[in-house]
Design goal:
By secondary structure, this protein is mainly alpha-helical. It contains 6 helices and 3 strands; from the N terminus they run ααβαββααα.
Amino acid sequence: MLTSNSRIRQRYRGQAWGLRMYEILQKSKIVINRHGEVAAGFANNMKLFETTGCGALLLTEAAPNLADFFAINECATYSSPVEAVSKINYYLENFEERKEIAMRGQERTMRDHTYTQRMAKVSNELLKEIS
């Protein structure tokens, strides 16, 4: 749990949706992603693509299927809160590396993971299930 004087608590401004969310993502250096219990350990949310598409460095939970979406040099992963903090500090200090990974992630998303492409894949999977 965060202490009351945590820098994260001091800077937290509440939830953001729609255009405001994308504006924040575009201004962000690093975006931390967590999939939650419903994901059962797999990478599966839109934040992967929203973050990279906006050009921020994606720092997401390690997942066995993440390589289905991104190469190791297109995002960063963490396996624990301690590792996440360590990687945040590392990438804040290593601007060029952070920028290069974010740029490769953005290129990958714009090439392979647009909404049109993702929804076509989802549609195909749903059609398989109902056939």
